[in-house]
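Hi V.,

You were right to ask for the full record rather than a summary. Here it is.
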Amino acid sequence: METSSTRTSSIASTLGVGSGVDMIALAEDLARAQFEPRQLRLEDQSQVLERQISIASTLRSLLSSFASALGDRVRTGDLSAQPNIANASVAKVSAPIGTAGKGTYSLEVEQLAKSQTLAGPAYTASTDTVGAGTMTIRFGAIDTANSTFTADTSKADVTIDIAPGATLADVAKAINAKGSGVTAYISQTTAGAQLVMKGPQGEQNGFVVEVAEDPDNPGLSNLGWAPGDDPARLLATSQNALYKLDGLARTSASNTIESAAPGLSLDLTGTNIGAPTTIGFGNPKAAVTTAMTDIVGALNEIAAALNEATDPLTGDLSRDYGARALRREFSALGSKIIMPNAPEGTPRTLAELGVAIQRNGTFKLDSARLDQALAKDPEGVAAMFTPGLNGIFATIDRIARNNTISTDPGSLAGSVARYTSQSKDISEDLAELAEKQERLRSTMVARFSASDARVAASQSTLDFLKSQIDVWNSQRN
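Predicted structure:
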């Protein structure tokens, strides 16, 4: 598109004004010629930096996604031998994280753990005032047959202050606010509004309620209770779970029993007196083989991208500290001890699970060696698939996290930060260069215009002299 400056220059040339040279275009060409080499170098550097930022960010993202997916996979727990129970109405069975079970167990549940449930007297409504004073909850064992209470001195008493004007609903809130394990709610029964208190499971978690009443605001003593008081208020007595595992009698204050046996946790849900049920363990071989295949595939995806990025001839990250550090870490991954606390003779490295590293930096799974490890020590293999401090997930997760530390120059995030800073500097240099080029162009235009004016004046004088000489010559003739 023709600009006003080019139109002016063209008109000037057409009319024969000045030297006839396009001074504006000349100034632009000269200014560009002076700065163009450096500008091209900076633009090339900027493009390289953009590629480096993109590739390093992609590698970092691949690592993080792999670690996250691996963590989700490990946390499902199916990579260890999972327990199963023949009579599912008796208990729910599971494997504690990082453990593996084998063999079979028999389970007979004679009694479930229960919590004490205590009801208060009936009121017209939950908004009825109940008096004032102090309620004290004391824990221990309740003997209903003999109307006795044996305090558990290892448990602290719970003191609850009830202010004048407090309602039945306020008492329930005050009990819950203590967080003692005793919970309370108001039940609207056929008799009226009743305060219901429930303690934790277990024989030693029974409780009594002692009341110190404010004489000026009586009535709170109605909520007190101890063995020998109204037996109808004691809706359930606390008790321990009684069960037999492999015929051996056991007791538990809770129906949830962690690590009842190696690789086995129980959540008791019913009784089966005289009819023991069987607990066995499935074979995790198929799940572990699939998981290892997926792990090797994910490692190869990252390794392929890393190989391309660090290629000595064509790789944009061939000299990058973060990429080279990651490549060294990958090359040592197979032999790295990822289970430092594992007993001697149990698998401690990925190589022992069949992971081999090839010359080009990619990974290969030796299925035969994995099968041997599973056959020899399934518990040891399963222990490597945990979300704990050691194992396959912890190792990959640690690599991924280390490469997100932007202050570490030897990480991918450090590389991204460095390249981003350099790219910003180049952008500022290009902007400064453009300003300098424009100032030079403007200066040249001004100087060339002045020169053009002087040339034009000289040309006019010369033309006048020529015309005068012509006149003189004609007169002589």
